[in-house]
Amino acid sequence: MTEKYRAYTLRNFREMPQAQYLSDEQIFDIEVVGQVFPFKTNNYVVDNLIEWDNIPHDPMFVLTFPQKGMLKKSHYDEMAGVIRAGSDPSVIIETADRIRWQLNPHPAGQIEHNIPEYCGEKLEGMQHKYQETVLFFPNRGQTCHAFCTFCFRWPQFVGIEELKFAMKEVEPLIGYIREHQEVTDLLYTGGDPMVMRTKNIEEYIRPVLDADIHHLKSIRIGTKALSYWPDRFVNDFDSDDLLFLFRDIVRSGRHLSIMAHFNHPNELITPEVREAIKRIKGTGAEIRTQTPLLRHINDDPRDLAEMWREQVALGCVPYYLFVVRDTGAQHYFGVPLVRAWEIYRDAYKNVSGLARTVRGPSMSAGPGKVQVLGVEEIYGSKVMVLDMLQGRDPNWVKRPFFAKYDEDAMWLEELKPAFGAEKFFFEEEFFSVR
Ligand SMILES: *Cc1c(COP(=O)(O)O)cnc(C)c1O
Ligand code: SF4
Fold first, then answer.
1. What are the pLDDT digits (tens) for 73-111?
2. Which ligand is nearest to the Cα of residue 257, counting in written order?
3. What integer pLDDT is reported at residue 320 of this predicted model?
4. Is the CB of residue 325 below 6 angstroms from any atom belonging to ligand 2?
5. Is the C-beta atom of 184 inside 6 A of ligand 1?
6. Fewest CB within a 10 Å sphere: which of 134, 344, 354, 396?
């Protein structure tokens, strides 16, 4: 494919050839919900990934087009009323903002607590939550080739959250890592850093290689481009330069892992994505994959198993299965923790050990990445068994702990300690370091 990237947004989605498959009612729903949540897709997604005779249930359609159910009824009715009344754009924006603020745009206040400092300055474009890994948010990588409907970063894309997570310069990052011997991993994230031109990406990566920091062993790049714009690695004008950069990272003696976001097996079947994966692997980089468990998209264990199997076939390593965060349209995409564990297990038991590298279901909560290990009955008490894959304090990692069985709970804050305990073991320290 050598077609040019073309974005479709609320402004022009009616012009895509596939708009003929949308009823007037569906178009109106997209307009209503798209006022509140970010909406952007592109020609690759609508031409190759969505099966248009399968809408509205097609998983890639649900993943990229605003869905009526993403707004609770009262919010939907409010916004629909304003639009039907032919209100001023300013009224529509006001209404959208009012609704957004009721959708928990700042879950768990995580942002403020993990910003590192260097030379007395807060490094706003970085996050250092877990001992060994620093996250870096390059300034120009704060958008994506298309937006996922479930995205927990939705507030930043609609502009109600300022982009404090963005850094223009790479020097403070290098200084910080140099000073912190415990940091072995650097993860470039966004948005999607792969929306940048190669020459911009290089400005963020080459100086890090040149700094020759021996304790920095791994570089990871988080991206959804393999799914939403695989040409980034194949036919874009600077694709080859990007692959040279990957090769140079590997040649520096470091591990390069592309952390690829795939949500459904249908994203893996086009010739474009297969070619992109092959080219990336050819540089010596590994590809690890992650997804949240999403109702209406991938909550069927057969789909998850097929996706992980196919990833292994293509040389990718399944890595994380996440739980949908407590923000935005969680009520639409979220799966309760107990059910999430059942689905994970049903999928996991049907794949070979090579795909059982996938860990989850895991909540990226304040204290750490909390994994649901399962449900068990212990001396007459039904409990949920949990542990941490990552902890704000490394001593919390891999310590099993117990919560009262709660079939409906979707997030850590909704769980209560089991066996009459007042708190989970980490709570005291967590609230004191916060
Ligand atoms: C998941 C995550 C990491 C990386 O953890 P690994 O276990 O090394 O994959 C780093 N920082 C944050 C904030 C994370 O959520
Ligand atoms: S690609 Fe990632 S950051 Fe971008 S919208 Fe999707 S989930 Fe959000």
1. 999 999 999 999 999 999 999 999 999 999 999 886 555
2. 1
3. 98
4. no
5. no
6. 354
Question: How far is the C-alpha of 271 from the C-alpha of 82, rounded, in Å?
Answer: 44
Ligand 1 centroid – CA 133 distance (Å): 7
Q: Is 360 left (phi over 0), alpha (psi -120 to 50) or beta?
A: left
Q: Which candidate, 275, 280, 276, places its Cα nearest to that of 258?
A: 280
Question: φ and ψ at 71, to 5 degrees?
Answer: -105, 135
Give the H or E element holding residue 172.
helix 171-179
Helix axes 171-179, 198-210, angle to 10 degrees: 30
Distance 151 CA to ligand 2 centre (A): 5
The answer to whether 141 touches 165, Cβ cutoff 8 Å, is: no
- Crossing angle of helices 271-282 and 239-251, in 10° steps, is 40
pLDDT of residue 106: 85
Q: Which strands, in side-by-side order, build the sheet including 255-261?
A: 126-130, 133-136, 185-188, 218-223, 255-261, 286-293, 316-323, 359-364, 368-378, 381-391, 401-404
What averages of pLDDT result for each successive group of 10 residues across the chain (434 residues)?
A: 86 97 98 98 98 97 98 98 96 96 82 80 91 94 96 91 69 95 97 96 96 97 98 97 98 98 98 98 98 98 98 98 96 98 98 98 96 96 97 96 98 96 93 68
pLDDT at 276: 98
> Which of 147, 259, 293, 327 is the best mutation target for the ligand 2 pocket, counting ligand atoms within 8 Å of the beta carbon and taking the most?
147
What the block records as the tokens of 430 is 């967590």
Which of 147, 164, 322 shows the shortest CA–CA distance to 227? 147
pTM value surpassing 0.70? yes
pLDDT for 3 equals 78
What's the confidence (pLDDT) of residue 107?
81
Kindly state if the Cβ of 153 falls inside 6 Å of ligand 2.
yes
Q: Is 311 in the pocket of ligand 1 (CB under 6 A)?
A: no
Q: What is the DSSP string of 352-369?
A: -GGGTT-EEEEEE-SSEE
In this structure, which residue's CA is closest to atom 4 in ligand 1? 133
Q: How far is it, in rounded angstroms, from Cα 302 to Cα 336?
A: 18
CATH number corresponding to 110-329: 3.20.20.70
Spacing, Cα 39 to ligand 2 middle (Å): 11
